[in-house]
Automatic annotation (TrEMBL):
A Gene Ontology BP annotation from the UniProt entry: auxin-activated signaling pathway
Subcellular localization: Endoplasmic reticulum lumen
Annotated organism of origin: Marinobacter algicola DG893
Name of the featured protein: Uncharacterized protein
InterPro entries: Auxin-bd (IPR000526), RmlC-like_jellyroll (IPR014710), RmlC_Cupin_sf (IPR011051)
Primary location: endoplasmic reticulum
Length: 197
C-alpha cells in the first residue's frame, strides 16, 4: 500500500451517501420553500401564556415561514406588571410599540470550554424606556421588563437570532415566571382583554 497508515484509515465497512444528501437537500429546498409562508396573517400568529409572559408569536421556526434565523414575538405586559426574568446566550432587541417602563439587567461572566458555566455579576442595572425606543439585551444577560404605568399595557416586539440553537448553544433559562403565568390559560383575542386593564 502507498501509505503506511492505510491499515488504520482504510478500516470500516460503513458506506453512506452523506454528501449526496446535502446535494439533494439543496435541490429540494426551493420546492419546500414554495410551501412556506412569506406573509403571516394575524389569525395565523399563535398566542401563548408563557413563563415569560403574554406573547403573540409573529415569526417562529415552528410556524412554517421562510424566515430561517430569526424569531419574533409581541409581548404584552399588563398595567403595573412585569415580564418573567430569563437569560439566554443570544443577543436580543425589543422595539417598544407603546407604553413606558424599565428593564433590569444583570451581566454574567461566562466560560465556554468542554462545559458551559455562567455566574451573575453583583450589579443590577436599570434602563428606562418608552414608546419608540429599542431595548438591547447583550448576550447572556439576565433581564426583566417592567411596565411603569398602572393604567395602560406595554407592547414590545422582540427579535432574537436562533442561529445559536443551530450551533448547539440553545442556552435559555427561565429564572422567574411572569405574574400572569398560568399554564391552564388558553390565550386568544377574547381572553387577552382581561389582562389589558
Amino acid at each position: 500500500m502507498a501509505w503506511d497508515e492505510a491499515t488504520k484509515w482504510a478500516q470500516g465497512d460503513l458506506s453512506q451517501p452523506l454528501y449526496q444528501h446535502l446535494l439533494d437537500d439543496a435541490m429540494e429546498k426551493p420546492e419546500r420553500d414554495s410551501h412556506r409562508k412569506k406573509i403571516v396573517k394575524p389569525a395565523d400568529m399563535p398566542w401563548e401564556m408563557s413563563r415569560q409572559g403574554l406573547l403573540k408569536h409573529l415569526i417562529n421556526e415552528e410556524m412554517n415561514t421562510r424566515m430561517e434565523t430569526v424569531d419574533v414575538y409581541m409581548q404584552i405586559i399588563p398595567p403595573g406588571s412585569w415580564s418573567g426574568k430569563h437569560r439566554h446566550l443570544a443577543e436580543e432587541c425589543l422595539y417598544v410599540l407603546e407604553g413606558e417602563g424599565y428593564d433590569l439587567h444583570t451581566d454574567c461572566d461566562v466560560e465556554i470550554t468542554d462545559t458551559y458555566h455562567w455566574r451573575p455579576q453583583d450589579e443590577e442595572k436599570r434602563f428606562d424606556w418608552e414608546a419608540g425606543d429599542v431595548i438591547y439585551i447583550p448576550p447572556n444577560t439576565i433581564h426583566q421588563h417592567f411596565n411603569a404605568n398602572p393604567d395602560k399595557p406595554v407592547r414590545l416586539i422582540s427579535a432574537i437570532n436562533r442561529i445559536y440553537k443551530y450551533c448547539g448553544l440553545n442556552d435559555l433559562e427561565q429564572i422567574e415566571d411572569a405574574p400572569e403565568y398560568d399554564p391552564s390559560v388558553v390565550l386568544n383575542s377574547e381572553t387577552l382583554n382581561k389582562y389589558l386593564g
